[in-house]
């Protein structure tokens, strides 16, 4: 008998934080929410240096929050897009890259497109990761795309990226949130940057 080799196709992973904000993880596509101000780890990888951190500030009537800043690190490159400073609705976004720019790794680049209602930034990294940020007057939407090589190597608010949506609410200590699926506050709190290492303060 011949040898049979079974391969597993590892697809690209997507995670989104939009609106006030509504999250869809790498595996879990039903939305979950966070309404407390703070800086949080959206995703961090165990097998390589890649991490996305987001900052939430008050939105609307103050009963909800929305994204006002994002910091992304791959290896030694750190890119920050920030509108968290100034008064809500009266602040300009700015982008920060490593200085001097020639120190940015080959394959790392950021594009910017001005639209009618938002400015769209797209960050490309050598690993194949792509982070898209749609910046509006008062908030931003964030979309993270990671390559199949990160399969089973992701932790954070975006979940584990292992094809199993039932274990996405894993905390840094390896325990799991077992309460509300729509508002998993203890899970979010465990990924607040005071609880884990941070990239940068937004």
Automatic annotation (TrEMBL):
Residue ranges of domain VWFD in the record: 13-199
Record keywords: Disulfide bond, Signal
UniProt keyword annotation of Membrane present: no
Matching InterPro entries: Dev_Signal_Modulators, VWF_type-D
Alphabetized Pfam families for the sequence: VWD (PF00094)
Gene Ontology MF terms in the entry: signaling receptor binding
GO cellular component: cell surface; extracellular region
PANTHER family: EGF-LIKE-DOMAIN, MULTIPLE 7, 8 (PTHR14949), VON WILLEBRAND FACTOR D AND EGF DOMAIN-CONTAINING PROTEIN (PTHR14949:SF51)
Stated name of the protein: von Willebrand factor D and EGF domain-containing protein-like
Gene source species: Branchiostoma belcheri (Amphioxus)
